[in-house]
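In this notation, each integer encodes one residue's backbone shape. One such record reads:

___
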Amino acid sequence: MFSQTLGTALGDWTADSAGLGYTGAMLIFGGLLLVLAGLYFRTSVSRTALFWAAFVLTRPLGAVVGDFLDKPLDQGGLALSRFAASGALLALIVVCLVAFRQRPATASH
């Protein structure tokens, strides 16, 4: 509950108070997640630390994306209904599941 509440507040603050808007805030939090992905693949930084950093960053990103989808056009959103926004997110999840197939783990010797 703590990380969810603070993450949502950070996303809202970044989009509204910092003046970046929803797309600017999405780029910031999405970019930070890409940095973490780069660290994962290119360095030996603790995987646990990277996981928790990504876990924390998904909260404000999710808040900003949700606001972008359902806020009115004059506030910088797409004005989708809650059902349409949920359908769009569901479609994205399905596309990601198909595009990024999981492979069974292999035993290393």
